[in-house]
Amino acid sequence: MNPSNQSPVAPDSIRTLIISNDHSEAVKIESVLARETAPQFLVHLAKSAEAGITVLQRGAVDVVLLSMSADGDRSGEALKLLSDRFPDVPVVVLKSKADEKTGTDALRQGAMDYLDKEGLDSRICSRVIRYAYERQHLREEIKSLALFDGLTRLYNRRGLEILAEQQLKLARRRKKGLLLILADINGLGKINDQFGYEQGDMTLVSMSKLIKGTFRESDIMARIEASAFAVLAVEAEYENAERILERLRGNLRNFNAQERSPFQVSLTTGVACYDYHHVTAFEQLLEQGTGDLAVNKQSRLKI
After folding, report:
1. Quick one: which of 3, 25, 88, 152 is 20 to 30 A from 194 by CA?
2. Which is nearest to 268 in space by CA: 188, 197, 213?
3. What is the C-alpha to C-alpha distance for residues 25 and 88, in angstroms, rounded to an integer?
4. Where in the chain is CATH 3.30.70.270?
5. Are strands 267-273 and 178-185 parallel, antiparallel or unpaired?
6. What residue ranges of the chain are covered by domains with CATH 3.40.50.2300?
């Protein structure tokens, strides 16, 4: 689920839903879009917002073209309904050329853009739809970036918290266990001071790869502080913790043996086990794990 670092690529085809209660208008717009081949428009027609929702529920739509006469006086309500129900599908409004207010009002209500119905040009129409599609994908990319750590490409604390709450609900319903394992790089500040921040960053990236190699793809891995990582191991019980930590120790030993580095990397860990009878929120589980980590730091227990 890592976000891309590149701009959205123009698609070969865009699935476009035209909502208009005027069938001749809808067919005319469809014929305008048919003139364009890059991208190709795969068109669905609907006579009302309700009919359009049926198509949207099948997940077969990239962009909606909504005629503001589609539901008569209820066209504004139709736009709000679509924006509320399907916020990830951009809506482009079709309005009368003389009615500029409808276009600006539509933007305030959540539309991505608007077009004038009169003299609809295939190139302009194609460009507006394509831009709406690409802007939506860019928004989704920005949203996903907000959940990831830019350096390690693991989840950040916010991403971990969101996904962990979902996992806690699943574990509670299924009566399954969860393990939270924290790992803190010892002396990262000294590494930065003695060898430079670039070396410190390289150490963080190396440890993130080591963690990915230790845990399962189904586990949720995150960098939650400057030197600290957290892993939520799904469907794992407390008795699995030592086996997991031993695997982490072995991987770290191998890393230090193979890496030509002026220093050895060590980690201090903390463990918390999810008990659905007593733990109701991820924050509680994180507090337990942080407490265990602090005790191990004080005792100089490290791997």
Report:
1. 152
2. 188
3. 26
4. 157-298
5. antiparallel
6. 13-145
Q: Which fold has domain 157-298?
A: Alpha-Beta Plaits (3.30.70)
User: 58: buried, middle or exposed (CB in 10 Å: 19+, 13-18, 0-12)?
Assistant: exposed
The radius of gyration of the chain from alpha carbons, rounded to an integer in Å, stands at 26
CA-CA distance, 75 to 92, in Å (whole number)? 13
Q: What is the pTM of this model?
A: 0.61
**Residue 121 one-letter amino acid:** D
In whole angstroms, what is the distance from residue 105 CA to residue 100 CA? 9
Q: Among residues 265, 94, 111, 143, which one has the least CA distance to residue 195?
A: 265
Q: For residue range 37-68, what is the model confidence (pLDDT) as tens digits?
A: 888 999 999 998 899 999 999 988 999 999 98
φ/ψ of 116, rounded to 5, equals -85, 135
What residues are paired with 31 via a beta bridge?
none
CATH C-level class of 13-145 = alpha beta
Q: Quick check: 67 and 51 in contact, CB under 8 A?
A: no
What distance in Å separates the CA atoms of residue 63 and residue 142, rounded to the nearest whole number? 19
On the question of pLDDT at 294 being above 50, the answer is: yes
**Residue matched to tokens 């000294």:** 190
